[in-house]
Amino acid sequence: MSDIKSKVQSLNPNIQPLNVADFAKDTNNVYMALNIISTRAVNLNVDIKSELKAKLEEFAETTDTIQEVHENKEQIEISKFYERLPNSVLISLHEYQNEGLHHRFVDESTEDM
Fold first, then answer.
1. What distance in Å separates the CA atoms of residue 93 and residue 65, rounded to the nearest whole number?
2. Is the dihedral of CA 100, 103, 52, 76 positive or negative?
3. How far apart are CA 71 and CA 76, in angstroms?
4. Domain residue spans in the chain?
5. Contact at 8 Å (CB) between 91 and 4?
6. How far does CA 102 lie from the centroid of its chain?
7. pLDDT band (50, 70, 90) for residue 41
8. pTM assigned to the model
């Protein structure tokens, strides 16, 4: 996961207009390409959330009172870093456009056997 974070540091987090017809160059179907991109985005989102949760659990303290809230500077910096990351859809779209996203199709006739 850390290699993805290093790759997307230079990625523009703003949405840019794109030609949808360019998505169909590999799959010959725009909807199939968007399905591939969205599936990868869901996978990235799960990975990023689990990594963030694991890092923030290191700072978790169990206390009995709700009034005691401690601000940890490292925890705030980690949260800000993950907030600045581009959206997972933008990351997967960038991977798809730069041919870093590989996909394969399962033949349904062989799957039934």
1. 45
2. positive
3. 8
4. 2-7+17-61+70-103
5. yes
6. 16
7. very high
8. 0.71
Among 11-20, 35-44, 57-66, whose mean pLDDT is lowest?
57-66
Residue 72 structure tokens: 């940890």
> What is the residue whose two structure tokens read 């523009």?
12
* C-alpha closest to that of 91 among 42, 21, 35: 42
Helix (H/G/I), strand (E/B), else coil: 107: coil
At a CB cut-off of 8 Å and minimum separation 6, what does 61 contact? 70
Counted residue by residue, the chain has a size of: 113
Yes or no: say if 52 and 82 are a contact pair by the CB < 8 Å rule: yes
Cβ atoms < 10 Å from Cβ of 90? 20
List the structure tokens of 106.
Answer: 């399962």
Which amino acid type is present at position 90? L
Q: If we measure between CA atoms, which residue out of 87, 112, 100 comes closest to residue 13?
A: 87
For residue 25, pLDDT over 60 is answered with: yes
